[in-house]
Amino acid sequence: MTTPTQHRLCMIPGPVEFDADVLSAMATPATSHVDPLFIEKFGSAIELLRKVFFAPTGQPFVVAGSGTLTWDATAANLIENGDNVLVINTGIFGDWFAECIGVYGGVVDAVRAPFGSRPSLAQIEAALTSKHYKLVTVTHVDTSSGVLNNIEDICALVKRVSPNTLIALDGVCSVGAEVIKQEEWGIDVVMTGSQKALGVPPGLAVMVVSKRALEVALNRKSPPTTYFASFKKWLPIMQKYEARQASYFATPPVQLILALQVSLEQLVAAQGSLEHRFAQHRVASAKVKDTLESWGLKIVPVNRACAANTLTAVYYPAGVAPAEFLGKVGSRGVVLAGGLHPEHATKYFRIGHMNVSVVNDSLVKHLDTTLNAIKAALQECGHKI
Ligand SMILES: Cc1ncc(COP(=O)(O)O)c(C=O)c1O
């Protein structure tokens, strides 16, 4: 725990740095979850989520939890014992999502690619034509590899080859920063957590579900295999709050939802449009990647087309030891993340660039501070720049 004066910049791929207005929205006295002021803010957050997810007819769900709970919710509400699920895997989060689906009785196949790349559309098409899948899951940005998936193309392919298959997008490391047009692209479930590009402290599981997926969940043969994450339980609660009425199933994390509402307002206001915010993330990402490459480092994604804009995963140069390097960056006031993929973890590190560190870059200079700390640490570790 650090005090504000000791604070080191948190440049990991989530939790990210927080905007002051988002943080101060949480500093309320004890507030009832049925207080009219809270009801108004929760209702507003639900409405704003439809805008941020580009899902005008989608059903938002916001519950206490983290991104992982949205996997459980998706699987427990949509999957029945023996249902086939195809997981498009670009890193360890694909493996873990697959494991989660298995817990709820899904029978999982995966399409994979070597570390740093993504499966081809031909591979996905071959899998989709081999049997009927009830659900396809895809990770937009796999935070373990920094790989960005081509969601629009994958959705178009699924619609063409297997239109009845539901599509679930793990947008935990992308929502609010990478382009997602949920309804236009036909995505049934888009999932995220509060602590990444939404720029809210950890603790919220956030998802928007299509009408089609909601019908599947509400009309399943067996009861949902979850109590807390049941769409059936939460749907009337979300509807009531949106109608500005008191409601209760399980206590909502009041202060986090107040922060979410402020963050979502900022997102939709982002100097005119969300598109502008997406563009800012592309610019920030290119700045980080170009700089690292100009110093002789190699990024993990095999090319820029499949490189995320929310984080940069980059290999340590030869001779640079992970713990020493990360320690030296830390002593300059910047926290980075090491590698996460179990097979490659010691070969690369990760820099998060989302939300306030990107959209206020010219003001806060988080990117320059981070790059300067990396440069100095690399040089001290013996890497010639
Ligand atoms: C792509 C992706 N999916 C899912 C998760 C799990 O989210 P959480 O840690 O909030 O449970 C993460 C967390 O980093 C993630 O990056």
TrEMBL record:
Annotated ranges, domain Aminotransferase class V: 31-342
What is the required cofactor set for this protein?
pyridoxal 5'-phosphate
Output a single Gene Ontology CC term carried by this record: peroxisome
Q: Which UniProt keywords apply?
A: Aminotransferase, Pyridoxal phosphate, Transferase
EC code(s) of this entry: 2.6.1.44
Q: Which GO terms describe its molecular function?
A: alanine-glyoxylate transaminase activity; L-serine-pyruvate transaminase activity
Q: Which residues carry this modification: N6-(pyridoxal phosphate)lysine?
A: K196
Record's keyword annotation contains Transferase: yes
Q: Name one GO biological process term.
A: glycine biosynthetic process, by transamination of glyoxylate
Q: Which PROSITE patterns match?
A: AA_TRANSFER_CLASS_5 (PS00595)
**SUPFAM superfamilies from the UniProt entry:** PLP-dependent transferases (SSF53383)
Signal sequence residues: none
Cited InterPro entries: Aminotrans_V_dom, Aminotrans_V_PyrdxlP_BS, PyrdxlP-dep_Trfase, PyrdxlP-dep_Trfase_major, PyrdxlP-dep_Trfase_small, SP_NH2Trfase/AEP_transaminase
Residue numbers binding substrate? R350
Q: Which segments does the entry list as coiled coil? A: none
- Describe the family membership recorded for this protein in Swiss-Prot or TrEMBL: Belongs to the class-V pyridoxal-phosphate-dependent aminotransferase family.
Its recorded name reads alanine--glyoxylate transaminase
Q: Which organism is it from?
A: Physocladia obscura
Question: Could you read off the lineage of the organism from its UniProt record?
Answer: Eukaryota, Fungi, Fungi incertae sedis, Chytridiomycota, Chytridiomycota incertae sedis
